[in-house]
Amino acid sequence: xxxxGVDERDLRLTLRRIRDDGFWENxxxxxxVAESLPAYRLSKxxxxxxxxxxxxxxxxxxxxxxGARRWMETITPG
Length: 78
Prior knowledge:
The model has no long low-confidence stretch (mean pLDDT 78). The protein has one domain (8-74). The protein is built from six helices and no strands. The chain has helices spanning 8-19, 21-24, 27-36, 39-42, 51-62, 65-74.
């Protein structure tokens, strides 16, 4: 992690936040992620994809959400 003013406390808060199942179910967050990708990044058909399809493609193939969740289970964010 990089950023001006980012410290260990910020990291721990972020880890707690992403351990919460609600984080991964946030539709607004997924829409923001999908919309921030260039039109070609998901598929040439990205503009025609329903939101649920874009979310599935991002979550399974680009970000490996399942892998991230498994990793989160192995750490303890004190």
